[in-house]
Specification:
The chain is of the alpha+beta class and about 120 residues long. It is globular and about 55 Å long. About 45% of the residues lie in helices and about 20% in strands. β2 and β3 form a beta hairpin. α2 packs antiparallel against α3.
Length: about 120
């Protein structure tokens, strides 16, 4: 991409509504019952997130999508026993992620997510 195109791209990004900007989001949960656990998993998939591990999803969401996902998950779980974490992460922070051992099951993760790690 040439310099002029880069400047135009940066200008358009500044004009964009920050609510529309997508950030990488981790969803991590610990849910005791199978049924709500499955519903949270289905909910994450419905937002286009990719399963990284059995109880870990990853994908790009804007602020409204993150909020909606959190509200839907809260409705699905028993908040006295279960936990669901929704962590937004910027690109800089994601580049600092350290993987130790077998960090995720590559059969569960799409090539798109694997590419972000390597």
């Amino acid at each position: 991409m040439n310099k002029k195109a880069n400047q135009k791209k940066k200008a358009n990004q500044k004009k964009a509504n920050p609510e529309e900007l997508k950030l990488l989001v981790w969803v991590i949960y610990d849910i005791t019952e199978n049924r709500p656990r499955q519903k949270v998993s289905d909910c994450c998939k419905s937002y286009g997130l990719y399963r990284v591990q059995k109880s870990v999803f990853l994908g790009d969401l804007n602020a409204n999508e993150r909020d909606s996902l959190a509200v839907e998950c809260e409705e699905l779980v028993d908040t006295d026993r279960d936990s669901v974490y929704v962590f937004p992460m910027d690109e800089q922070s994601f580049k600092k992620v350290q993987l130790i051992g077998q960090a995720f099951d590559k059969e569960l993760v799409s090539d798109e997510v694997i590419t972000k790690f390597f």
